[in-house]
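Example complex used in Figure S2.
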Amino acid sequence: MNKKDLELYVHIPFCVKKCAYCDFLSGPAGREEIRAYVSALVHEIRACEETCRDYRVCTVFLGGGTPSLLTGEDTARIFHALRESFDIARGAEITVEANPGTVTEEKAGVWKQCGVTRLSIGLQSADDRELKMLGRIHTFSDFLNTWKLIRRTGFNNVNVDLMSALPGQTVKSWEKTLRRTAELGPEHISAYSLIIEEGTPFYEWYGEGGRKKDGLLPLPDEEEERDMYKLTASVLKEYGFHRYEISNYAKEGYECRHNVGYWERKEYLGLGPGAASLISEQRFCNTPDIKKYMNLYESEGARFGAAAGETEILSLEDGMEEFMFLGLRKTKGIDRRDFLAAFGKDLDSVYGEQLRRLENQGLIACSGWNVRLTERGTDISNYVFSEFIL
Amino acid sequence: MSDIDQSRIRNFCIIAHIDHGKSTLADRIIEMTGLLTSREMQAQVLDNMELERERGITIKAQAVRTVYKADDGEEYIFNLIDTPGHVDFNYEVSRSLAACDGAILVVDAAQGVEAQTLANVYLALDHDLDVMPVINKIDLPSADPDRVKEEIEDVIGIDAEDAPLISAKTGQNVHDVLEQIVRKIPAPGGNPAAPLQALIFDSVYDSYKGVIVFCRIKEGTVRKGTPMLMMATGARAEVVEVGTFGAGQFIPCDELEAGMVGYITASLKNVKDTRVGDTITDASNPCAEPLPGYKKVNPMVYCGLYPADGAKYPDLRDALEKLQLNDAALQFEAETSAALGFGFRCGFLGLLHLEIVQERLEREYNLDLVTTAPSVIYKVHKTNGEVEDLTNPTNMPDPAEIEYMEEPMVKAEIMVTSEYIGAIMDLCQERRGIYQSMEYIEEKRAVLHYHLPLNEIIYDFFDALKSRSRGYASFDYEMMGYQRSDLVKLDILINKEEVDALSFIVFAGSAYERGRKMCEKLKAEIPRQLFEIPVQAAIGSKIIARETVKAMRKDVLAKCYGGDISRKKKLLEKQKEGKKRMRQVGSVEIPQKAFMSVLKLDDD
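Predicted assembly (994 residues):
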């Protein structure tokens, strides 16, 4: 029997210190708590064994938080459990997120042993003042040390995360960050525009009705933000990167398979608190309460989905909407035949009117089976995507 | 029933400034006269419309009949006639008062005499009512009943020495009020054998009984079968049923005699036939003269009401027709706007009346509405000698055809504590007010008298007054006729296209300022779109202000991974929902609330 593809996301909800813009489920914790958490996580992994028997895992993503905060031993326990309970494909893409300043020779060695194929480093900026303003714990030179270390260990598929549209950032300083990073020659760069998320210190300062405290740097305006975005593609192109998604750039063949899976609506299973899953057109999410999660998976033998909250059963319409607004995030766009295969309906019979209008407005380009965003459509992609909400 | 002795009847009303506790006292009186058990009491029996309860005000005059066994051992019939508390409904108040023999004046023990208190008392005295003061809310920590007593005597000039000090909320000393009603309010007069003369003080439409007329029998007797004639409207009908008012219900009886308050039904289909203030007589034995004081109420304020969803136009028409059955003052006629499609130009007594109708349409009839800026009635004197009443700015004749224009003025009375006099005078000045006089009614409070153009107070004057006086100013006005004025029509162009629904008439001297503010406001209300949109204000072909809504440049969700998808989808759904609430004008999408933004231009 042919096994179905499955992507695994494993969440590590710990970091050294919360950054001022971060709304992920993460926070500082003591060594013992982290250890106890890894035990609970291992119990959840074991609980999946039965249910996921018909799946073959094609990608694993150990994200956070700061997974590189884990000791080598804890990391090894997680991978050991994963390999025991899941059928992980040979050649699977296995990514670990790491932050500068938390990586050691020992840890990098363990990652190699565990079969990690790809690292993702959170740099965010090459400007130390910007790093400080963001509340990051490292400097650019800390990053350079980490960079040398992982290259030395033999990781040759590495992503670097960067952020534009930061308070006080200029088009010039952004260009400097891009060039300093690209010159090092990573295989992949994710360049995100800052999103001010509710519940973060940034929201308090910059959000709706935010209280601007004294000496607060101004956010770039829409125009500057757009200039930074345009600059990203053109600068990175010089270094051999192409944009394959709204915020993601890679050298040929180094696109992140795990993330592409999300945009192509592959099935995924999230492990750890707050992690979301999509299995058989059902979406569910584990409790974001770490204590509760740890209680539920305190001992061996807890059942699959014990920590999951309400399950959302996606209708055909939900599926079609997601197909459009996720698929069009990819630079190459979507293929009409994939839509037909997934939903048994011709794309034009559902979205014909929207497609014609958006094409007339110059926001999408349709040719043959292919539909994709134009440059202008990419700039205002939310506007385009909202048209596909049924 | 007919053996009720006139001397055992008391017809009275309660008058008060808004929020001084009129409805609460009415509830207590009804409760304590034992007609209803406490269990039957809803919080406020007289305000039986849901909307009234929420806004805490009384819209339609109603009446209730209760039986009180007094300390002297006798049973008295109390007819309590409720009066609306707002200046928009002044005429209805006046007619309700005419149905009474006395009035209880409720004054808040903390706030004292306010502008509406004065206006209502003068109205009551005009109708020769005996006014009996009551000081309410003595349970408040800030209550100062002695000061308020003095104020009543000094400002109003009525004896407040033995005014009951009560808390209508807790019921404290309300018994004194009941005893004073018996002692101080005169019994009605009138001869049951005389030709019928009955005053209509309200009417409601009931789908089973048709129009139900609320009336006070001044002379004569009315019973089933009486052929009645409405003397002003000329409508005729045979009486089907007469009766009195229980709390929230009608209690039929054989006849209503001089001195009594009750209702009459006559299978009339339209409340327009039974205008408030009209006199009912017996067509077979008519009285010589109608009762004095009838006038036809006319709308003062007009605005366009449009369904947000054009397909709901017939529903809006049905809803307006139904509301009109119960609200003779509401007028409407069909109109068309290039921007808003099919709708109605509606006439109201005032801004509150407008708001109430709008809310009832939205709430009771589930309609989503777009309202255009309210307008008053301007008189356009044309060069050819004709005079036109202008209620819709779109219909303004070409300036070349206009000799001059007139606008309606009001006499305003503003009561304010001394520290805010300056701020309020500034406000009146900005609104083209003409100062008349000021008098101190006590050391720290004054009444300002101004003449103001009505069109300056129909937008947001009341809000501005409250915000500039921190809520301490109160305000009342009456119409005082027309005055010549330099007026222009201000047009708004969006993407170079005139949007008829945004045009309004404004004093020439304020046009630049208004135009500028309008453009600023619209710029803030109109979301960025695919292209740049100029927003301009113009008088004729002359552009006087301009703003630009920049084109949408960047609107991107930087990240969207497995855990974000549900949340990001909600954002897109919200964006889509927002688009649905827009009006397409030419190639521009304008949010519906932008059409209302003209209403609030005060800077505060």
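The two ends of chain A are 37 Å apart (CA to CA). Residues 316-386 of chain A form a domain with the Arc Repressor Mutant, subunit A fold (CATH 1.10.10.10).
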